[in-house]
Amino acid sequence: MAKPKPDVITCSECTQYNCHRHDKIYPNVCATTDLAADERAEIAALYAGDSLDGLINRVAAEVEGTYYCKINRIEETIAFARRIGAKLLGIATCVGLAAETKILVDILRTAGFSTRTAICKVGSIDKSEVGLAEELKIRPGFEASCNPVLQARVLNRHKTDLNIVMGLCVGHDSLFYRHSQAPVTTLVVKDRVLGHNPVAGLYTAKSYNRRLLDPDAMAKL
């Protein structure tokens, strides 16, 4: 099967990654070398400054360096939240992960945080009300629409310091990120088929999930 040709050369086509260690050479087309000096300096100053962006970037790097391959993502989230001074953590959860969210709440409270949770079906708006045809529901009859905008608003009203996404649907997570006033980190990404581990699809794209590289199969989605 022929590999599709890119229409633009970007980082996914790179074989050097000199930007990582400065131990190779930059390719002819490169987002790093194309960067204007003043923009690079502006971004470096942003990260070095006292703004929330600078704090988040430095703390993320600190947690990575301090705990590299030593702690799991839950522990990293706690370490990150603590270092940015977060006290009240919001959780935007899928109803399908309500049980897991209860465990997460216990863990976060054990670590000394206060929590507020907003479940995806908050507001209980039938999918028909938002224009979805009955035949496109999972089951006919009342079926509540996911409500990521209201999830964000609920957590905004609680004035959370950091919000955590627990398995929101593809696209619904996008809406939550757009409307959350607090910074957002993701703990769980939804993948109903792969046990919420979508990278497994990448690892098996040339074997068990080879349909992912089949143009005809992808055209049907």
Brief synopsis:
The protein is 38% helix and 10% strand. It is an alpha/beta fold and 221 residues long. It has a domain at 42-190: Rossmann fold.
Could you characterize the architecture of this molecule?
The protein is α/β, with parallel strands linked by helices and 221 residues long. The protein has a domain of 149 residues: Rossmann fold (3-Layer(aba) Sandwich). The chain has nine helices and four strands, in the order ααααβαβαβαβαα. It has a four-stranded parallel β-sheet with strand order 2-1-3-4, sandwiched between helices. The chain starts with 17 loop residues before the first helix and ends with a helix.
Topology:
Blueprint lengths: L17 H4 L15 H12 L3 H16 L5 H11 L4 E6 L4 H13 L3 E6 L28 H10 L4 E5 L5 H8 L4 E5 L10 H5 L11 H5 L2
Parallel strand pairs: 1-2, 1-3, 3-4
Give the averaged pLDDT, no decimals.
96
Distance between the termini: 20 Å
Which sequence of SSEs, written as H and E, runs from N to C?
A: HHHHEHEHEHEHH
Number of strands: 4
- The fraction of residues in strands falls at 5-15%
Class per helix and strand makeup: alpha/beta
Radius of gyration over all CA atoms, rounded: 21 Å
Number of helices: 9
Main beta-sheet annotation: 4 strands, parallel
Q: Give the CATH architecture of one domain.
A: 3-Layer(aba) Sandwich
CATH class of one domain: Alpha Beta
Named CATH topology of one domain: Rossmann fold
Low-confidence stretches: none
Dominant shape: globular
Helix content: 25-40%
Reading side by side through the largest sheet, how are the strands ordered? Answer: 2-1-3-4
